[in-house]
# Entry
Amino acid sequence: MEAAVVSASHGALGSLIGKLGDLITSEYKLLKEAKGQIMFLKAELESMHAFLKKMSDMEEPDEQDKCWVKEVRELSYDIDDSINEFLHRVERKYSSMPRGFKGFMDRSMSLLTTMNIRHQIAKELEGLRSRVMEVNERRMRYKVDETVSKPNNTVVDSRVLALHAESASLVGIEEPRDQLIKLMDEESVPASHQLKVLSIVGFGGLGKTTLANEIYRKQEGLFLCQAFVSVSQKPNIRKVLRTILSQVGFKPPMNTNMEMWEESELIRTLQNFLLDKRYLIVIDDIWEAPAWDIIRCALPENINGSRVLITTRIETVARACCAKNIECVYKMKALSDQDSRSLFFKRMFGAEEACPPYLMEVSAQILKKCGGLPLAIITTSSLIASQPSKLKEHWEHVRDSLGSSFEVSPSLDGMRQILNLSYINLPHYLKTCMLYLGIYPEDYTINKNDLVRQWISEGFICEARGTDPEDIAKSYFNELINKSLIQPVDTDYNGEVMSCRVHDMMLDLILHKSREDNFITVIDDIQDLTRQHNKIRRLSLNLDGAIDETVGRSFQLSQTRMLARFGTSLYLPPILQFKHLRVLTIEISSGPYSSELLDLNGICHLFQLGFLKIIASGRHVELPSKIGRLQQLKTFEIKGQSDLQLPSDIVHLSRLSHLIVPEHVIFPNGVSNMKSLRTLRCFDLRNSLDNIKGLRELTNLTNVEIRYFNYTSTNRDEFAAKCRELVHALGNICSLKCLLIRSSYQPVTVRACLDSWWSVPTSFIHLQSFHAKYFSRIPGWIGQHHSLYDLQLVVQDVYGDDVGILSQLPSLVHLDLHINGVPKDKIIIRGRGFPVLKHFTVACCRISYLAFEAGAMPKLERLELCFNAQGWDRYGGVPAGIEYLSGLKEIVGDIGGLYAKGSNRRAAESALWDVAGLHPGHPVSNIKLSFYYIFDGNDDEPRE
# Structure
């Protein structure tokens, strides 16, 4: 039987009813009157819950019904808080007592205090019973109708990523794309060699970003520097400038923290870096001209044919951006009737011809109401496609529900109406998970792992017996992707979506619904908190600049279950104000440097806290010396704090599943106690030998990152001992799926450590992703792990058929192989080798040692070659047989030019361009010269 959960529409009713049942049958010594009140509450709340389920299926409940639903939902939260607090107080009394005779005496002495607790809970339950009766009487007094709604038969479309790929097939985009590209390159436009700014303007949902992204993709390789950055409604200009610098290839000086730079320094650096380069910059989603004015200052005028492309919803902003070239403003149009049909039917049936004749008329009516808006067509088609049958009646219901606003003029209300239809047809559990996305700021990239772990901590996930709650939560995430309600951002090499973004029109709907249900309160001005009339159940603060902390003391937060903090301000409401927090996430982005502490000592009393994540780059985070009370904590993650001191009793958090800390952090002794751990990142080999030995006890680990740094000759023996113990410990863990072993250099001791693994880790039967530095050569045991799809290796040498070991891996999709020395033999990729490999990166000082046979790597899409130009006249030559890679779509060349003659650099670059140009598949080419040198293991190699 599924465990009851918390939801947006029902509040804590589902979870609460289960707890009340447990209280009646449990060992808690409740007073007789308290048990009677609990039985009464349980019966009443079950009836209320049944009614609320019916109400939440209704598209437009009566206002009177809405009021009653809200009252019941808020009451459920209050009762749930009271029950949780009672359970915590009693459990804390007994859990702190010793065993044996002393424990017996302590328990006997505590009877008086626990009796007081029981009297208090009995009195509190009496008050709650009165509130429940009052709510029910009000319902009867005003005769709230129990309207039965239509059943929900939503099923999951299995094409999770395929549907997204279909929507991204860019129907009707060729003409505007080619028109804009022509405008970018138009020689007849005055001063075409000078910097040119182009704008794409149109309202939300028309596909401006999609068009800009397609142009950006088509222009890859034609500009020396490229960047694509989102600005959004409330831009963080410094973050925008840093992102551009990063994407165009700027490398800050050693020991420089760019996050501390002021705007003026970022602008000056970007100007200097781009001054002599041909660049393409896409600035997506600008809302105000002042934001553009600042960004424009950082983009230098040059005569290299540089281009800037912006997208905006506001025509005056588009014109302001293109003040010098008003003809460069492109107004987005809705899809034509033909393109609308093409997009709709491609998503529904694969092609228009496959549509049954009996659905043609209703399809045309649906498309008319969508008004050529791609987002409307995508969300509507996803809604229809999620149904198990193609009944005409269902299509007609969708048509009738769409309203008529799009027939007159596209508007926010019209879009919300379409998106709302998709929301209404979600099952209850997905509605709650969807609304929870409202805690994140606009244009935020949401990490899937964070999201599913927060859902679990909030109690949103139905925990069926024999199933992993995280697996269930991930399936919910994939359902939202599948239904086009959230947009994939990052996908791993195995095709799994790892992060998402919420379309701003969908975010508008989410926030609208959240306000209706008092589910999430979003504040970007601290003064707004004083105007809140409802109890705040979940609070998202996005604050910048100085904050008047006296305002923060004027509102009540004891009922808040989730606190999310974003922005540059260090302000955090006093943790002591919170009692029932389940989720605490703090993300302080870069801002003016401050020596203030982020004081988190108060988290000790958050007895229900299940998720804690802190990102505070450049700030000092102070954790409490003791954290052992947080027995519900399952996720603890902190980033940006190199001198972090972990509380000594963190090793006693029995439910902790995910522990992610910065590198260099040393763990307190007792790591072996943390038997629930699944994720452990980063574990530094400077930890004690006992803690390294303790890893072998953590048999539930699935994701591990090991870090090691320089060890001097005085402690080399100690380091070697730790390496040997690490090998033994990890070899004992059979559940590992991801193992990352990272270092910034390659001491001989490290290679000896990993080489001792030559035959040990056959226990890694579930290993899917393995990154390691450094092996002496490719270890033979890797060939036994058929689940591996992502492999990154740094090796000193390659001998004989070492690469042939890898070529037989049946699941390998991504291979990154860095060879430090000069290969002992030619590396030949045989025919039929690497049957499913899609991405191959190889770094070697002499790339001419690599050759491909006909039939090798039949699925390869991206080939990245990293090599030295130095010595090209003696050892040069691109890999032989690239033309045999039949599926190749992209060739990336990263040529190390350090120590090389100018002629060698030019020859290496030219040779790679020639190979790319002659490939029969005409892959996209991105070839650049960098000033680095791949170590070749030969100190006597002449420097040119």
Remarks:
- The chain has a mean pLDDT of 80.
- The first strand starts at residue 196 and ends at 201.
